[in-house]
Design a protein that fits this description.
The structure holds two protein chains of two kinds.
Chain A: E1 12-18, H1 22-35, E2 41-45, H2 52-58, E3 62-65, H3 72-85, E4 91-94, H4 106-115, E5 121-126, H5 135-152, E6 164-167, H6 168-173, H7 183-194, E7 198-203, H8 216-237
Parallel strand pairs in A: 1-2, 1-4, 2-3, 5-7
Antiparallel strand pairs in A: 4-6, 5-6
Helix pairs in contact in A: 1-2, 5-8, 7-8
Chain B: H1 8-11, H2 18-33, E1 35-40, E2 55-57, H3 63-69, E3 76-79, H4 83-94, E4 98-101, H5 108-120, E5 125-127, H6 142-150, E6 154-161, E7 164-166, E8 174-176, E9 181-186, H7 201-213
Parallel strand pairs in B: 1-9, 2-5, 2-6, 3-4, 3-5
Antiparallel strand pairs in B: 6-9, 7-8
Helix pairs in contact in B: 2-4, 5-6, 6-7
The chains are: A alpha/beta, B alpha/beta.
C-alpha cells in the first residue's frame, strides 16, 4: 500500500524549493506523487532558467516562481504565501529538490503532526556520522546547531535540515527577513521566541553527487551574521 | 523579506481620482436614499459589539451597500493591492474604514499576518471571499484559515436590495436603486470550534461559509 492510499490530509502540503533543479525534479516528482496527491504538492522555483515550471506542468504540480533568483528563503516565502492564501494550508512540509530527502519519511512527519498539532516546527534530524554525510557537513551542522541552541535556549538537533513541517500558525505569526538559506535558522529562532515548540524527527539523508548551491565559508559567515542579527533584534523587540 | 505594515493607514489617505471620486459621491448620495432593515442573528451585533474581533464575509458584488452601512462602524477590510484597490481604499477611507492591502493573489501571507494582528487587537475584519478577481461567488480558503488561527467567528452577510442595477462585470456588481429597501441579513456566525476534524478543518469551514453565503 502506498502512502497515498493511506490518505493524505487535505490541509497538509509538500513544498519543494527549487533552483536549477529541473533534472532533479524529474526524478523526485514521480516518487513524491506516489505518496502525495498532486494537488497537495507545490514547487517554489527560485528564478531558474532551466524549464522548472514546464517540468512541474508535466506532472500537473503547481509551481510558483520568483522572477529572479533571490534565495531559498524567498522561494519558501513565495510557496508559503501561495499555499496558505490559495489553498488554506495548515501544515507545510518542505523538502529539497535535489533528492536528499526520502519520500518514505513523509509518514513520520504526518504522524508527528497528528501527535503534536500545536507544534510550530517539526524538523528532520539527519544521521550525522561519517559515511552517511560528508565530514565537512557534519562539522558545520554540529557547530551551527550548537550555536543556535545557545542562542535560543532550546536543544536544536539539526539547524540545517530542509526537511521540515511548518505549522500555518507559526508562518502567520513569524515573518522572516532573510531571503537566503539563513531563513531556515531564523524561523527556528522566531518560533522559540514566540513560544512555539520545535521538535525533531529522525530522517534519512541521501547524499548523491548533486551540485550544491552552498559556498561553505561565505555562507557560514553570512549565516553567523544573520543569526546574531536576529538574536539581537528579538532581544530588543520582544519582552 | 519581512513585510512592511500594509494597512492603508501606514500609507496615508489616498486621494480620490475621477473614478473613485465619482463612486464616493454616487455611493454617498444614493446611500442617503436607501432604507435598511437588519435581519438574522443577534448573537453578534456589528453595530454594538465593536471590540470582539469578528470576521465579516460577503460577496464582492455587494460591496457598495455593505461598505455604506458599515461606514459608521469602521471595519478593516482586505483590499487588493492594485489600481482598483487604490480606488476602493480611497472610498473606504472616507467612510471611516481601514484597509489591509493585498489579496489571495498578491502578498497573501502578509495579508494573513495583518488580519491576525488586527483581530488580536479587537478590530473587526471584512474579507471578500470571492475577491479580487473571482470566480464569482466562490469562497477561497483565506477567511476560514484566519478564523481557525485566531479563533474568531465568521459572520456571513448578505445585502438584498429590492431594486438594483447589476453591472456586466465579473462579479455582477450590485448598485441598489435610489429609495429602495435593502435587507441586510447577518447569518449565524461560524465558530472555529464547530470544525474539529483534523486535516480537513479549513476545507469544511470554507464549504460551510460557501453554503451560508448562497441564497
Amino acid at each position: 500500500m502506498t502512502q497515498h492510499q493511506l490518505q493524505w490530509p487535505a490541509d497538509t502540503f509538500v513544498l519543494v524549493p527549487a533552483y536549477k533543479a529541473a533534472a532533479a525534479l524529474n526524478v523526485l516528482l514521480p516518487k513524491l506523487l506516489n505518496a502525495v496527491p498532486a494537488s497537495n504538492v507545490c514547487v517554489a522555483d527560485d528564478g531558474s532558467r532551466d524549464g522548472t515550471p514546464q517540468v512541474c506542468g508535466g506532472f500537473d504540480v503547481a509551481c510558483v516562481s520568483n522572477p529572479v533568483n533571490k534565495g531559498k528563503g524567498a522561494a519558501l516565502e513565495q510557496g508559503f504565501s501561495h499555499l496558505m492564501g490559495d489553498k488554506g494550508a495548515s501544515w507545510i512540509i518542505t523538502m529539497d529538490a535535489d533528492g536528499q530527502h526520502a519520500v518514505a519519511d513523509l509518514p513520520v512527519f504526518l504522524r508527528s503532526i497528528a501527535e503534536m498539532p500545536d507544534a510550530g516546527i517539526i524538523a528532520g534530524r539527519r544521521t550525522m556520522r561519517p559515511g552517511a554525510m560528508p565530514l565537512s557537513r557534519i562539522c558545520s551542522n554540529m557547530l551551527t546547531s550548537r550555536f543556535l541552541s545557545l542562542l535560543t535556549g532550546k536543544r536544536i538537533l539539526d539547524s540545517q535540515c530542509g526537511f521540515r513541517a511548518y505549522s500555518g500558525r507559526l508562518l502567520a505569526a513569524a515573518p522572516c527577513r532573510f531571503e537566503r538559506f539563513e531563513m531556515e535558522s531564523e524561523i527556528i529562532m522566531r518560533a522559540c521566541r514566540l513560544g512555539f515548540s520545535v521538535n525533531f524527527v529522525n530522517v534519512q539523508t541521501l547524499y548523491f553527487s548533486t551540485q550544491s548551491h552552498i559556498s561553505h565559508v561565505a555562507d557560514t559567515l553570512r549565516w553567523l551574521r544573520a543569526v546574531i542579527t536576529i538574536f539581537l533584534e528579538l532581544r530588543r523587540t520582544t519582552p | 523579506m519581512q513585510s512592511p505594515d500594509n494597512t492603508a493607514a501606514a500609507g496615508g489617505i489616498i486621494p480620490l481620482d475621477l473614478v473613485s471620486g465619482s463612486a464616493w459621491v454616487l455611493g454617498s448620495v444614493l446611500g442617503r436614499t436607501w432604507r435598511f432593515s437588519i435581519e438574522g442573528t443577534r448573537e453578534i451585533d456589528p453595530f454594538r459589539d465593536r471590540d470582539k474581533g469578528v470576521i465579516f464575509c460577503f460577496w464582492h458584488s455587494q460591496i457598495l451597500p455593505l461598505a455604506y452601512i458599515f461606514r459608521g462602524v469602521g471595519v478593516t477590510a482586505v483590499v487588493s493591492a492594485s489600481k482598483d484597490g487604490d480606488r476602493a481604499t480611497a472610498v473606504a477611507q472616507r467612510w471611516n474604514h481601514d484597509t489591509i492591502r493585498g489579496s489571495s493573489s498578491r502578498g497573501q501571507l502578509a495579508v494573513i499576518r495583518q488580519c491576525i494582528r488586527t483581530l488580536a487587537g479587537g478590530r473587526n475584519v471584512v474579507i471578500i471571499p470571492d475577491g479580487p478577481r473571482g470566480p464569482r461567488e466562490e469562497v477561497k480558503p483565506g477567511a476560514a484559515m484566519i478564523a481557525l488561527m485566531t479563533n474568531a467567528p465568521v459572520v456571513p452577510v448578505r445585502a438584498i436590495p429590492r431594486r438594483a442595477w447589476r453591472l456586466n462585470s465579473w462579479d455582477g456588481f450590485v448598485i441598489p436603486k435610489p429609495f429602495t429597501h435593502i435587507t441586510v441579513d447577518f447569518k449565524a456566525p461560524l465558530h472555529p470550534s464547530q470544525f474539529t476534524e483534523a486535516g480537513t478543518r479549513v476545507e469544511q469551514f470554507t464549504r460551510s461559509l460557501q453554503e451560508a453565503l448562497l441564497p
